[in-house]
Specification:
The protein is mainly alpha-helical. The radius of gyration is 40 Å and the shape is elongated. Keywords: Membrane, Transmembrane, Transmembrane helix.
Length: 105
């Protein structure tokens, strides 16, 4: 009993699990830099001159059509159509040979 009564208050607290978890939370809060970063960002915004900020007005945006993209689209359609026609012709010739009983080459 004397040993328990002679202990310092800190020693009594160290045996308590809640005290240890509270000490850990206190340490985490003291070392948290999030609040400092937010304060620096707010000060940066307050100290900056709003005249130097860039503003965009999208309603004044002018979009120009690129003629090369139109030519590329037409060329792609023509080349795709030609490849499709050749494929169909070759496929039909192959089927006719198979129907006649000739073995394909």
């Amino acid at each position: 009993m004397e040993l328990l009564s002679n202990r310092k208050d800190n020693d009594n607290y160290l045996q308590n699990d809640d005290y240890i978890s509270l000490q850990q939370e206190l340490f985490d809060l003291e070392n948290d830099v999030t609040a400092q970063q937010i304060q620096r960002a707010v000060q940066n915004i307050v100290n900056n001159n709003g005249q130097n900020w860039v503003t965009y007005r999208l309603e004044l945006l002018d979009v120009k059509s690129d003629k090369k993209s139109l030519i590329a689209l037409i060329a792609a359609i023509l080349i795709g159509s030609m490849i499709g026609v050749f494929y169909v012709l070759i496929q039909s010739a192959y089927r006719k040979r198979v129907i006649r009983g000739q073995t394909p080459v």
